[in-house]
Structures are given as C-alpha cells and as structure tokens.
Amino acid sequence: xxxxxxxxxxxxxxxxxxxxxxxxxxxxxxxxxxxxxxxxxxxxxxxxxxxxxxxxxxxxxxxxxxxxxxxxxxxxxxxxxxxxxxxxxxxxxxxxxxxxxxxxxxxxxxxxxxxxxxxxxxxxxxxxxxxxxxxxxxxxxxxxxxxxxxxxxxxxxxxxxxxxxxxxxxxxxxxxxxxxxxxxxxxxxxxxxxxxxxxxxxxxxxxxxxxxxxxxxxxxxxxxxxxxxxxxxxxxxxxxxxxxxxxxxxxxxxxxxxxxxxxxxx
Length: 266
Description:
3 helices
C-alpha cells in the first residue's frame, strides 16, 4: 500500500511539472505573437524635403528622383532671392502667367537644408538662371512627367519617371533665332480651334525668346505648338518655339498640365 501510494504521488508530481512547462511555453508563444513591431529608438522617417531634392541647379538634364519633380502652387507674386534666407532679390515669381493668366505652378529643383526655401528657374528671364523661393504656406505636389527637347536632334521626348512615353520630331529655332536652352514649365494651355500658324493648340512655356527675328510681331513667349507648315518639322525653322505635328499635339494634351517641367538642351 505504501509503495502504491509513493508511485501515485510520483506520477502526480510528473504530470504537474509537465503541465507547468506547457503553460509557460504557450504563454511565451502568446507574448511573441502579441509583441508589436516598434521602430528602433531615435530612428526618424525620411524627410519629405530630402526626398524632393530633384537635381542640382547646374544639371541641365534635371534627372528626377523616385519621388518625382516637386511643384509649388503660387498664389501671389513672390520675390526670388539670391540665396536661402537672403535679402537680395534677383527675380519675381508671378502669381499668374503674364500671357494667358493661368495660375503659376513653379518647378522646385532643390530644397534648402532647413526645408524653408526651394530653388526654382526664374521665369521669363531670357536665360537659364535660378533663384530661391520661400516655400512656407505654399501647396506642393509632385509629378513624374516631364518633357525633354534636344535641339541638335530636332526631337522631343515625353518622359514618365525613367520611361519614355513617346518621342516626336520638332521644328526648332532658325539660326538667326535659336531656341533658348534652359529649364521651364508649362505655363499655359491654349486652344486655337480654327488652326493657323500655331496649329490648333499651344503649350506656353515660362520662357521668352530674347532674339526675335527682325519684323516679328507674334510675341516673345516660347511654346510647344502646332503649325500650318508641316514641312518645317524636323528643321531649324521657327522664331524659337518648338513646332510639332497635330497628331503629336493630341497626345501631348493628354499628359501635359500646367507646371509640367520642360528641359531644352542644345
């Protein structure tokens, strides 16, 4: 009887130990499942402004980062400064296009380290120059679409991210009135339903032609537009604008909005 009792007590003790071990193991697995994923202390999220640093101001190709080209909506005329936080004004960012009144959207090429200023092409300056714009209070967005034009090849490309959407031949400025190189944005979208020398549509640019042909009376704003002289496409024949075929205009209308960056290189 004593032996039987001892064996019984030994069995009960073994079962109890096993039960405790199982409960402890289950509790550990439960804690593992419930443990939240917590970021390491002091690890900050990437700065939006750092991600928006698209290009150095001297890079005419203006390659974009994965975040896209940074754009800023301009609600009032604003000074453009020689350096971030400086006092010397070297240009003006207008609230609207001086030609057709479209609200201005600026292309921000780079952002200052403190995130308060953006470097932008100075519009309608007649040359490729940049200034610093105060960003506080401005609505910003990004676009992955841009236009690249190569004057020596008489061709333009529409690019989305790193992918070429399509390319097309274009007429460029004649030798006496070469198309000015530089960084611009689409500043106006203007329809001409009856057609004419500008075709049926024009995309005004935030740039001007400082070398107009003698006797020219058609204005000084640069543009991408159609033409009533298709034979000129692919040649150096214009007063400075980029002329494209009507079928190309139809495609451009679907992808180019106000603020779309345009880079023109020799």
